[in-house]
Amino acid sequence: MTGAQHPHPTQAVVLAGGQGSRLRPYTDDRPKPMVEIPGTGTPIIGHQLNWLAEEGVTDAVVSCGHLAGVLQEWLDRAQLPLHVTTVVETEPLGRGGGLKYAAGSLPRPDEPWYATNGDIWTRFPLREMAAFHHERDAEATLALARPRIPWGAVETDAFGHVLDFIESPPSPYLINAGVYVFSAAFTELLPDRGDHERTTFPRLARERRLAGFPLPQGSYWRAIDTAKDLSEAAKELSAHGG
Q1: Which conformational region is residue 160 in: left (phi greater than 0), alpha (psi within -120 to 50 degrees), or beta?
Q2: What region holds the Nucleotidyl transferase domain (predicted)?
Q3: Shortest CA distance to 52 belongs to which of 179, 147, 148, 165?
Q4: Beta bridge partners of 62
Q5: Please, how many CA atoms are within 13 Å of residue 44, restricted to the half-sphere of its CB?
Q6: Which of 13, 66, 86, 134 could share a disulfide with 7, CB 3.0–4.6 Å?
Q7: Using the 8-state DSSP alphabet, how is residue 19 labeled?
Q8: What is the C-alpha separation between 141 and 126, in angstroms, rounded?
Q9: Where does the pLDDT of residue 56 fall: very low under 50, low under 70, confident under 90, or very high at 90 and above?
Q10: Separation CA 205–CA 138 (nearest Å)
């Protein structure tokens, strides 16, 4: 368990092997995390690595898959604020198996670690999440986001009268934000193949060893899945002054 460990990890895994089929044609010649946010000149993974470094991470393992060579070449060229190594799955291992395989290259296997999906663009205090994880003595903690519904909502009364129209309201449900804190022992709980969200996470939830950290109010979070997400991210970046 994490109780005896320092609450702020300094190592992370970035899962960057997705094909990004919904982002075509941007992903025809590059993996999804290599797609640039318009106006920044930096791919999604560049923003992620900068954020991890700002939050105290000194070592990152990037798990590559689709068009791995393109990502590795960029990582070799880029001036990065932390030490990065890459691993490539030679055969599909599933999300949990891929996470376990990448974790095998972490420099300090006896210490806790962060993990993040490679298509997430976010900014929030990771150290606060790590402290939350530590206080709850959890094996795993996932960040929880409340994204806006992409449609307008209609509010009615019990009789069926329309009361109001609400443009893109926040979802009433929290979702998995794709950012995690894991104890050192969590690595061994992952499957060699398969999806940890169907195996490891449900087991830990039953045992009350899985925690959920709601993103602080005002935190920026967006999953980059479609071309519209790219343009929305660019607009939001511009609205916040870069």
Answers
A1: left
A2: 12-237
A3: 179
A4: 14, 86
A5: 30
A6: 134
A7: -
A8: 11
A9: very high
A10: 10
| Tokens found for residue 147 | 């994204």
Tell me: the pLDDT tens digits for 9-47? 999 999 886 665 555 655 555 667 777 776 677 788 888
Contact call for residues 122 and 222 (beta carbons, < 8 A) = yes
**Amino acid (one-letter) located at 152:** G
Cα 13 to Cα 94, 111, 154, 164, 242: the distances in Å are 15, 13, 41, 44, 26
- With 70 as the cut, is the pLDDT of residue 230 above it? no
User: DSSP 3-state assignment of 178?
Assistant: strand
CA–CA distance from 67 to each of 33, 89, 120, 181 (Å)?
A: 11, 12, 19, 27
Task: Estimate the share of the chain in helix, then strand, then coil, as percent rounded to the nearest 5.
Answer: 30, 25, 45
Residue 21, token pair as written in the block: 């089929």
DSSP H or E run through 50:
helix 44-54
Strand duo 140-145 + 210-214: pairing: parallel
User: Which structure tokens are listed for 58?
Assistant: 């000194």
Rounded Cα distance between 7 and 50, Å, is: 20
Residue corresponding to tokens 């999806």? 195
Spatial neighbors of 191 by CB under 8 A, at least 6 apart, are 94, 96, 97, 100, 199, 200
Distance CA 121, CA 178 (A): 10
Q: Using the 8-state DSSP alphabet, how is residue 146 labeled?
A: -
- Tell me the pLDDT tens digit for each residue of 129-184: 999 999 999 999 999 998 878 788 899 999 989 999 998 888 888 989 999 999 99
Element (H or E) spanning 142, and its range?
strand 140-145
